[in-house]
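Duplicate of #3305? Posting structure anyway:
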């Protein structure tokens, strides 16, 4: 085996963004032998990951709305739904919708992609504070669809088209940095 000098080459084992669409996390193990090549284990998240995230989110459709819950067996509120979906993939996100106000990367609605989060005010028309959210499932010809847990008429996890009701409550769209995976 070729000899590897690990003292000369410092290897950073933290998470790295490889490109805009590929994110990798490397775990490097060294043995005690100086003539052993390090073993590198890399888990990739690619462009297809948002579709995997959305596919899992859709398995929760029909789950009833329950304020303050992150337990799909009992029901989910909007941020509980987001937390449940992202935690399923070991991605840590804030628990409360208002905590997404300054979380992630703000994205213009013209370039939003499936997997981005869409933030809205709560139902109080006088408030400008984030109080509701969902995951964008599709963007076709300027039409945005999102999956969310609503306490409204549908009362549970559903896919909704961005309509006038939600446009009036729209705050912003954020992209979650998937490199914060555990």
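Output from current build:
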């Amino acid at each position: 085996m070729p000899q590897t000098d690990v003292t000369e080459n410092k290897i950073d084992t933290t998470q790295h963004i490889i490109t805009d669409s590929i994110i990798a996390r490397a775990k490097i193990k060294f043995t005690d032998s100086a003539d052993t090549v390090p073993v590198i284990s890399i888990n990739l998240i690619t462009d297809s990951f948002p579709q995997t995230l959305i596919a899992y989110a859709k398995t929760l459709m029909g789950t009833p709305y329950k304020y303050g819950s992150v337990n799909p067996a009992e029901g989910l509120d909007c941020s509980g739904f987001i937390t449940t979906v992202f935690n399923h993939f070991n991605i840590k996100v804030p628990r409360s919708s208002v905590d997404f106000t300054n979380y992630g990367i703000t994205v213009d609605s013209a370039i939003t992609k499936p997997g981005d989060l869409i933030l809205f005010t709560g139902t109080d028309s006088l408030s400008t504070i984030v109080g509701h959210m969902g995951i964008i499932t599709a963007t076709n010809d300027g039409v945005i669809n999102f999956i969310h847990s609503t306490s409204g008429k549908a009362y549970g996890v559903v896919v909704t088209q961005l309509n006038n009701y939600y446009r009036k409550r729209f705050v912003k769209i954020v992209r979650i940095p998937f490199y914060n995976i555990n």
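Confirmed duplicate; merging threads. Residues 1-44 have pLDDT under 50 and may be disordered. Residues 49-180 form a domain with the endopeptidase fold (from Nostoc punctiforme) fold (CATH 3.90.1720.10).
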